[in-house]
Design goal:
Helix content: over 70%
Protein name: Sec-independent protein translocase protein TatC
Order of helices and strands: HHEHHHEHHHHHH
Pfam families: TatC (PF00902)
Number of domains: 2
InterPro entries: TatC (IPR002033)
Family: Belongs to the TatC family.
Keywords: Cell membrane, Membrane, Protein transport, Translocation, Transmembrane, Transmembrane helix, Transport
Distance between the termini: 21 Å
Shape: globular
Strand order of the largest sheet: 1-2
Largest sheet: 2 strands, parallel
Number of helices: 11
Structural class: mainly alpha
Number of strands: 2
Strand content: under 5%
């Protein structure tokens, strides 16, 4: 007997609101468990990572002769920062798991072909996520030094540890996620939810958003640094559009052949359902 939410029993993978919430909860729990377990491993990397994160502040004190340091202004502040950094490390280490859970939630009751898409999504998304983190990591010292350069002469930079770590983590993680967005667009297009031309129409807004993101990530007067951040994001975005449009063209040809030969409108059916109708 076909399961209620299997492809045989439920070809369109329809769910009631309660089932959607249950599915969302299960996916979040799996992603959270993986992240927490990875965060435990992150504790072992805390001290070297913390030294690398705070290196720009040490450079300010050394290169500019200005007092600059990270302050833990509370009894439990050092422990809170350790937890925060370890969770960020865990989020990076567990990225294959939560990226897969994200895709699995968007496409429940997967076909075999769609499961291959899910694996491909993870295989492409994880390197891009790590690439975004790496680029943000390279630009982080410049961003910190540029922002603290506005400190008036004779003044000092005593930065609260939680504030500084929050700034660095948000900078790095947000840039990593932004590199995954083009892959998500291709995935949504593969599902038939949006066409490449529809995405292309919003290209002006995308350029503006990417420029703002690059400006916030690499503030300062160095235009080339901003360009180095914008270029890979824009290349990925327009590459995603090209893939979507190619996929749309391929799908349209396939639909036209099915309608012409068998009268099957594959816009309303999946590949397997179309084959079933043809077999009848």
């Amino acid at each position: 007997m076909a399961s209620k939410y299997s492809r045989k029993g439920n070809p369109q993978a329809q769910m009631a609101l309660r089932e959607h919430l249950r599915e969302f909860r299960n996916r979040v729990i799996k992603a959270a468990i993986a992240t927490v377990l990875a965060a435990v491993a992150g504790f072992f990397f805390y001290y070297p990572v913390m030294r690398a994160i705070t290196a720009p502040i040490a450079d300010i004190a050394q290169d500019h002769g200005r007092h600059a340091s990270i302050n833990f202004n509370g009894v439990a502040s050092a422990f809170d920062v350790m937890v925060q950094v370890s969770l960020a490390i865990g989020l990076v280490l567990a990225s294959p798991v939560w990226l897969y859970q994200l895709w699995a939630y968007i496409t429940p009751a997967l076909h075999k072909k769609e499961k291959l898409y899910a694996v491909s999504f993870v295989c492409v998304s994880v390197p891009l996520f790590l690439l975004g983190i790496w680029i943000a990591w390279l630009c982080m010292p410049t961003a910190v030094k540029t922002l603290t350069a506005f400190t008036p002469d004779g003044q000092s930079n005593f930065i609260e540890a939680k504030t500084y770590i929050s700034f660095v983590v948000k900078l790095i993680i947000s840039f990593g996620i932004s590199f995954v967005i083009p892959v998500a667009l291709v995935g949504v297009n593969m599902m038939g939810l949006i066409r490449g031309r529809t995405i292309l129409k919003s290209w002006r807004w995308v350029v503006v958003v990417v420029a703002l993101l690059a400006a916030m990530t690499a503030p300062g007067t160095d235009v080339m640094t901003m360009f180095y951040l914008m270029a890979p994001l824009l290349i990925l975005f327009f590459l995603a559009i090209a893939i979507c449009m190619f996929n749309d063209k391929r799908r349209d040809k396939k639909n036209a052949k099915l309608v012409e030969s068998y009268g099957v409108d594959s816009h309303q059916t999946t590949d397997e359902e179309g084959l079933e109708q043809i077999g009848r």
